[in-house]
Amino acid sequence: MSVYQFSATLMNGEEKLLSDYEGKVLLIVNTATKCGFAPQLKELQELYDNYKEKDFEVLGFPCNQFMNQEPGSNEEVIETCQVNYGVQFPLFKKVNVKGKDAHPLYKYLTNESKGFVTSDIKWNFTKFLVDRNGEVIKRYAPTISPSKIEVDIIKMI
């Protein structure tokens, strides 16, 4: 299996096959605009800007499962991301990233790359680095800033 077996709905309502990203390095992140880590959205955009021409993508999955830190509608989420953080990378409609109703992609990601103590996503801005074959290479805690992941991205592109 790989991430390419999954699909998710983009903010514009389009169902996006992750196989469309085949051959690219991916950084998949669960986001929340009201979270203390929300400034990472700007860093994620900088990574995207710096490496998108080298087949790198950031995929953002807003989630409201952690202390109601993404309470707005999908339209409000995308507006906040674009206006406050300049986000241009793909954003998907809000999903659950843990529990029985977790999006199938997140069930796969957490199974492939266990967290510290548990495989569950514990907070917003957990990041998964995926190689060009769709394999999960590494999981990063919310406290790891995107700029610290850059060295691992460079090794893969």
From TrEMBL:
MF GO annotations: peroxidase activity
Q: Name one GO biological process term.
A: cellular response to oxidative stress
UniProt keyword annotations, A-Z: Oxidoreductase, Peroxidase
Q: Does the keyword Ion transport apply?
A: no
Q: Which residues are responsible for catalysis?
A: C35
Q: Where is the Thioredoxin domain?
A: 1-157
UniProt keyword Transferase present: no
Q: Give the matching SUPFAM superfamilies.
A: Thioredoxin-like
Domain of life of the source: Bacteria
Q: Which InterPro entries match?
A: Glutathione_peroxidase (IPR000889), GPX_AS (IPR029759), GPX_CS (IPR029760), Thioredoxin-like_sf (IPR036249), Thioredoxin_domain (IPR013766)
Q: What family is it from?
A: Belongs to the glutathione peroxidase family.
Instruction: Quote the protein name from its UniProt record.
Output: Glutathione peroxidase
List the source organism. Answer: Lederbergia citrisecunda
Please spell out the taxonomic lineage of the organism that makes this protein: Bacteria, Bacillati, Bacillota, Bacilli, Bacillales
